[in-house]
Amino acid sequence: MNNTNSQLQSDRKNLWHPYTNVASDNPLYLVNSASGVELQLADGRKLIDGMSSWWACIHGYNHPALNQAAKNQLDKMSHVMFGSLTHEPAITLAEKLLAMTSQNGKQDFERVFFADSGSVSVEVAIKMAIQYWFAQGKTQKSQLLTVRNGYHGDTFAAMSVTDPENSMHSMFQGVVSKHLFAEIPAYGDSIEWQDDYIVPIKQQFEQHHEKIAAFIIEPLLQGAGGMKFYHAEYLRQIRKLCDQYDVLLIFDEIATGFGRTGSLFAYQAAKTTPDILCLGKALTGGYMTLAATLANSKVVAGIHADHQGLLMHGPTFMANPLACAVANQSLNLLEQNNWQQQVLSIEQQLLSELTACEKYGSVAQVRVKGAIGVVEMKQAVNFKEIVPKFVEQGVWIRPFGKLIYIMPPYVIKPEQLNKLIQAIKSILSNDVDVIRS
Ligand SMILES: *Cc1c(COP(=O)(O)O)cnc(C)c1O
Predict the structure, then answer these.
(1) CATH number corresponding to 3-59+338-435
(2) Domain spanning 71-336 has what CATH number?
(3) 19 is known as an active-site residue
(4) pLDDT given for residue 436 in this prediction
(5) pLDDT at position 20, please?
(6) Atom 11, ligand 1: which residue's CA is nearest?
(7) Annotation says 178 is catalytic
(8) Cα(257)–Cα(229) distance, rounded to whole angstroms?
(9) How far out from the chain centre does Cα 346 lie?
(10) What's the distance, CA 214 to chain centroid?
(11) H helices of 256-338, where?
(12) Among 163, 218, 382, 434, which is least packed, fewest CB within 10 Å?
């Protein structure tokens, strides 16, 4: 037995993978290295990456500048505790994030909390909101309001605001805390806004505002909950309702942040500023795990007004210097590479090439926004059949549910993106295997 096979066998015997059952016929590939937008498999094949390792790897793999930033920091210290100690990479990164979230010379946020993962940054956001109201003696304000089809992570509080039925978390119903969910009646970013779209959300505010601490939502695009785009006017209306009913507003930009939808942050495109902002995924350019929760001056003042004046959270590896150093370099690269132009070219190519997939009978809709291209099928796709077919064609595309989607690294070249799109078309023209039987 060759080494690759024995390693794969060992993996299947010893490991769990994200939301994947361990059945031996599930696709599994051994990656030896990665460079630019290509994954190098142990069996010698190279795959063009259409997933950016789940939205994160925006500048490509094995990037010389990101490698160098990690090496430089490694030679100083890879980690030090953040309790009563601090370091330059965290200080610089906080300054950068606060500057990037400034508009017209004014900071939208005042303070940054570094968390270890996106889910944890959502936990911290929820904690901030609840602490804010507790500090004012409003202990009845402890519930969250959100919309259906959302996804906010896998830890318990994050799960509790993720769609309760139509999600990976349905088996935990009854165990996770109960929060309030409203409908978004109309999806699609080209729809005409109608005033009654906000009614289901407004009704929840009217009925429950006294016990609601915060409204949490992924701005403009619901990611893992179905890659659904919606009208920015929802966010502006929700902001108004939050102000009117004394509810804090949390935007989860873990997926949309750092340019993916065509604006640096989706909240800026929507012209609506939340009180608390969660960032993650692309923060380190996909190099390592790091997330951040940013709070505005109102939330900071509220939390500090409590006689204790402290935020009750503090992970062991908080503000890991190695991750912060790489994040700083990744943010430099965004600017140096002119991310806006990169994302715009990807968007234009997706619009002109991917949209043609709508002609296939099995396709319900094609959606494009920024560096995101989504083909929604009429039925759930046959994952086990499709993934190996993509690999045969030299691309890495991993569908879920009814969705075949790509969100490539921003550095992808037109001919590489074309190869991803051609691979999708070739799968679609072979309907028989696409749909789960
Ligand atoms: C991925 C994601 C999370 C969870 O982040 P992890 O780093 O996987 O914990 C939360 N919210 C959104 C919108 C995400 O896309």
Answers:
(1) 3.90.1150.10
(2) 3.40.640.10
(3) yes
(4) 59
(5) 84
(6) 152
(7) no
(8) 15
(9) 19
(10) 20
(11) 266-269, 297-305, 321-336
(12) 382
Mean pLDDT of the 323-341 span? 98
- Whether the predicted pLDDT of 308 surpasses 80: no
User: For position 433, what pLDDT does the model report?
Assistant: 65
- Counting from 1 in the atom list of ligand 1, the atom nearest the Cα of 281 is 7
pLDDT value of residue 435:
66
Burial per residue of 330-362, b for 16 or more beta-carbon CB atoms within 10 angstroms, e otherwise: bbebbeeeebbebbebbbebbeebbeebeebeb
Question: Residue 419 corresponds to which amino acid?
Answer: K
Q: Is 432 exposed, middle or buried (0-12, 13-18, 19+ CB in 10 A)?
A: exposed
Per-residue pLDDT reduced to its tens digit, 32-62: 999 999 999 999 999 999 999 999 999 999 9
For residue 310, the model assigns a pLDDT of 86
Q: Which atom number of ligand 1 is nearest to the Cα of residue 289?
A: 7
Which residues line the pocket of ligand 1, CB cutoff 6 A?
A: 117-119, 122, 151-153, 218, 223-224, 252, 254-255, 280-281
Catalytic residue among 49, 108, 116, 252: 252
Whether the Cβ atoms of residue 59 and residue 285 lie closer than 8 Å to each other:
yes
List residues bridging with 277 in a β-sheet.
251, 294
Asked about 163 being catalytic, the answer comes back as no
Catalytic residue among 228, 281, 369, 402: 281
Measure the CA–CA gap between 145 and 378, rounded to whole angstroms.
30
Quote the mean pLDDT of the chain: 95
Q: Kindly report, as residue ranges, where domains of CATH 3.40.640.10 are found in the chain.
A: 71-336
Q: Is 151 a catalytic residue?
A: yes
Rounded distance from Cα 35 to ligand 1 centre (Å):
24
Q: Is the pLDDT of residue 2 over 90?
A: no
CA atoms of 334 and 65, how far apart (whole Å): 12
